[in-house]
Amino acid sequence: MSPIGFGGAALGNLYSEVSEADARATIDAAWDAGTRFFDTAPHYGLGLSERRIGAALAGRPRDEYTISTKIGRLLVPVPGGAGRQDEEGGFAVPADHRRVWDFSADGVRRSLDDSLARLGLDRVDLLLIHDPDDHWEQAVGEAYPALHELRAQGVIGAIGAGMNQSAMLTRFVRETEIDAVLMAGRYTLLDQSAEADLLPACAERGVSVIAAGVFNSGVLATDDPPENATYNYAPAATEIRERALRIGAVCRRHGVSVPAAAIAFVARRPEVATVLIGARTPDEIRSNAVSATAEIPEALWADLAAEGLIAA
Predict the structure, then answer these.
(1) Distance between CA atoms of 228 and 55, rounded to whole angstroms?
(2) Catalytic member of 44, 144, 187, 231
(3) Which superfamily does 4-306 belong to?
(4) CA distances in angstroms from 275 to 9, 131, 169, 214, listed in the order given
(5) Which residues neighbour 3 within 8 Å (Cβ) at sequence distance 6 or greater?
(6) Cα–Cα distance between 38 and 8 in angstroms, integer?
(7) Domain residue spans in the chain?
């Protein structure tokens, strides 16, 4: 995987529309910036993200990039749904399909077949169990064995799970033979909870970590988070924003932007194989590329620790 990966949720029209031209230009900019890992899911815009990423990568040499998608939500057609918006998922797309939770072995195969058709590919490099928070028994008892079999057959390259929590991901690492976890928001400058369970387990078992949500959905995306900044996809509480401002003050003393520090803080962990960052415009891609390659003095981490903002 490239050190920086491309998160495809925004290109599924998360919260607001992205034009076809901007979506293609964004993926082209990511490629030009050296990104070679692309992550998507059926959930993202009811398949729109998969279609856009697949189309944009269609002319690229297949052995030069890695792509992951997910299982757990089957997309079922909704007659007459095209006239409504996908309010349930939060994506600005027509509600012409609905999501049905399905972690069965048959559901895994159906979801993968549908994803391959949308991507225009005959295989994916990584297939992840997506958000099984309320479906542990079926996910580990049915979806995981199906993924294990598909990997053994060479149909997919690697298997794993992707979630916004660390506890269940840690169970997957310790109780199965997965290759990777996609961990969103649980190891950042504001939330280091995965340091207590998931990261040590991954180090012990040799499982790669795809670190997502490093800006905690927005509050760490700028040097001075506005009053309406979001944290974990909700309005940031006052104490969270104040903590982000304190982090920003320390970063300024070292001439480092908060986004650059947020990326580097996560990337310095040896368990982390790639930092996954979403974008909806070429300018965001270029800005993230600058942040990802910024020089970070070691003294920054010492000062953040001295102020109790990260562990010593």
Answers:
(1) 35
(2) 44
(3) NADP-dependent oxidoreductase domain (3.20.20.100)
(4) 15, 19, 17, 8
(5) 267, 274, 275, 292
(6) 7
(7) 4-306
User: 131: part of which helix (H) or strand (E)?
Assistant: none
d(CA 103, CA 105): 7
Tokens standing for 199? 């990261």
Q: Which residues contact 44 (CB under 8 A, 6 or more apart)?
A: 8, 9, 11, 12, 14, 50, 91
Q: Is 44 marked active-site?
A: yes
pTM of the model: 0.96
State whether residue 99 is helix, strand or coil: strand
First-to-last alpha carbon distance for the chain, in angstroms, is 29
pLDDT in tens, the chain (312 residues): 899 999 999 999 999 999 999 999 999 999 999 999 999 999 999 999 999 999 999 999 999 999 999 999 999 999 988 889 998 889 999 999 999 999 999 999 999 999 999 999 999 999 999 999 999 999 999 999 999 999 999 999 999 999 999 999 999 999 999 999 999 999 999 999 999 999 999 999 999 999 999 999 999 999 999 999 999 989 999 999 999 999 999 999 999 999 999 999 999 999 999 999 999 999 999 999 999 999 999 999 999 999 999 998
